[in-house]
Amino acid sequence: MSATSHLRIEGLTKIYGSTAAVEDVNLEVAQGEMLVLLGPSGCGKTTTLRLVAGFVAATRGRILVEGKDYVSLPPYQREMGMVFQSYALFPHLTVAQNVTFGLRMRKLSKAEISSRLEETLEMVKLTTMADRYPRQLSGGQQQRVALARALAIRPKVLLLDEPLSNLDANLRQSVAREIRQLQRAAGLTALMVTHDQDEAMTMADRLVLMNEGRVQQVGTQEELYEQPLNPFVARFIGHSNLIAGDIVDADSFRLPGGGVMKLARRYAQRGPHTLALRPERVRLHVGGDAAPPRATAQVEDATYVGGYVDYLLSFEEGSSLALHEPTGATGGTRRAMGETVAITWDSLNERLFDPKGTTIPAMESA
Amino acid sequence: MAVTQSSVAIAPGAAIPGSPGTVAALTAVTRLLVVVGIALMLIPLLMTAYMSLFADGVVTFPPSGYTLSWYGRLAEFPKFGQSLSTSLRVAVMATLCSLLIGVPASIALVRYSFPGRSALNVLLLSPLTVPGVVIGLGLYVLMVDIEIRTEFPLIGSDWVLILAHLLITTPWVVRLCVANLVQLDRSIEEAAANLGASPGRVLWSVTLPMMRQGIVAAALFAFIVSFENIEMTLFLISPGMITFPISVLQYLEYRFDPLVASVVVVQTAVIAGLLLAIDRYVKLSKVV
């Protein structure tokens, strides 16, 4: 990756007073790649984007584009096109004047400006709106103007700050696809920020999950979902049951209440650990299942939600587990509340984290 | 510090719980209050306009007849031309100068943080808290002292009046521009920088055009505050040079005839015309 990386962020840190908003962020984005920064609010993703744009001065670190360090340059010399969450269109300028603003700042020739304007407006299908003012446009159209304005300067890197959050839910998908298409067509390296997991999953080539100013995991959608590196990733991407207990034997996991689960794999470690299981990867054990029952629990609640039945199961003394049973096979019949059920899961779907939050390897399949 | 615009929309019958009777009563009370408010503002104006039509040389009620002739005799009003032109000159200059001070100051106050920021804010608004008579007297004593020491005539000069009026117009400019600026989306300026505009270009091409409404409102207030000022100005005029409101005041000291009413009507009409003209370019209902 490093040979082809177009944007490289090294040890980027921003400290406000005594708290680090962004701490030691290292990222590499390949030419033409869309990297999406994801995380809860206050995780440092927006600050990271603003550091790259130059609106926030870095405490430490480097921001390299094509090998050149941009970290100490002011925003107007960074050649990065940004699409703002609020779109930030110039209210006193027309669509055409908005789109050509960056070109006029670059003192391009009139001919060049008008040909780029035409080309860009065509790309975002706004040719007929050139003389309108932003307030005369719908939210989706304003968004496209913001995108066109950023694309017109042919930026080295495209920065997108929550680009879909101000749109109606039914518009989001089509706009997301459109942004992706334009970014791919232009071969632009892009960095996007979002708090919405679905949005991140649909838009990204690769994802960066952040929390408390630090990068938790970088990887593809599959990597983050299937192989979360720590409990935070497991819980944030999709949903995971995080069950505290002790590994008491190579394949035995004892819950605080005393019950023991049979693990799907064997582990060398002992002592307190956290078991992560996804609700849709755990199933009710029925006769004929190849995997043995791994634990028993009581049905606390069972809700039919269409595609699956959402079970809340409880173990003795507090531990509980969410389980999604697809309705396709059962026709949606639910187990009675209070019924004791056996559950099982396959070895691929089991992950254990040590108290420091790092995932521990299995010895071999049980 | 910031005056933020707020609008409260009351949808009758929607937000207020209660029987239709209660709602109707509340609506009636609201309407009554609006009517009383408008009447309080309009009655003095209408009375003045009414009096300017009286035929008698001394205002008596009921009048013996009505005439428009007072309007033909405006030029007879003592110092009408001199006082009106002085007032306009001073108001225009005070407005321009207070914009030159107040607009940059409000940008600095809202967009930058620097040592002494809150002190500057208080300093710029403080003249509003001091009665005009006190400022006027203070300035008068100061000017007289300087005149004695330098033997340079200050009282009655345009520049002294303009400087004094700056004290009362600048706080208005700062208040209105600050209120306008805090509403503007900061990221619009960031977008301009992102597109390659240097800080100077951002200010000139984006910030100032976006502040247009605030600046117009500020200019308007500054002009009116300066034009109408009496209490502070009283101390700073000379017999040869007075402002328009003071000429009206002086006239009323020894005479009360419909001429002064017609003069005031003309003045009100001029200011109203000015407001209407500005409203064509900037919707005043949005800025004030």
Number of DSSP-assigned strands of chain B: 0
End-to-end Cα distance of chain A = 36 Å
Shape of chain A: elongated
Q: What is the overall silhouette of chain B?
A: globular
Main sheet strand line-up of chain A: 6-7-8-3-9-10
Keywords:
heterodimer, A: alpha+beta, 22 strands, B: 288 residues, mainly alpha, 12 helices, disordered N terminus
Description:
- The complex is a heterodimer of chains A (366) and B (288).
- With 366 residues, chain A is α+β, with helices and mostly antiparallel strands.
- Helix content of chain A is 24%, strand content 34%.
- Chain A is built from nine helices and 22 strands.
- In chain A, the strands form five sheets. A six-stranded mixed sheet of chain A has the order 6-7-8-3-9-10, sandwiched between helices. In chain A, strands 13-12-11-15-21 form a five-stranded antiparallel sheet. In chain A, strands 16-20-17-18-19 form a five-stranded antiparallel sheet.
- In chain A, a hairpin with a 3-residue loop joins strand 17 and strand 18.
- Chain A is elongated.
- Chain B is an all-alpha fold and 288 residues long.
- In chain B, 69% of the residues lie in helices and 0% in strands.
- Chain B contains twelve helices and no strands.
- Chain B is globular and about 75 Å long.
- The two termini of chain B are 16 Å apart.
- Classes of the chains: A alpha+beta (366), B mainly alpha (288).
Give the gist of this structure.
Chain A is α+β, with helices and mostly antiparallel strands and 366 residues long. In chain A, 24% of the residues lie in helices and 34% in strands. In chain A, the strands form five sheets. Chain A has a six-stranded mixed sheet, with helices on both faces. Chain A has a five-stranded antiparallel sheet with strand order 13-12-11-15-21. A five-stranded antiparallel sheet of chain A has the order 16-20-17-18-19.
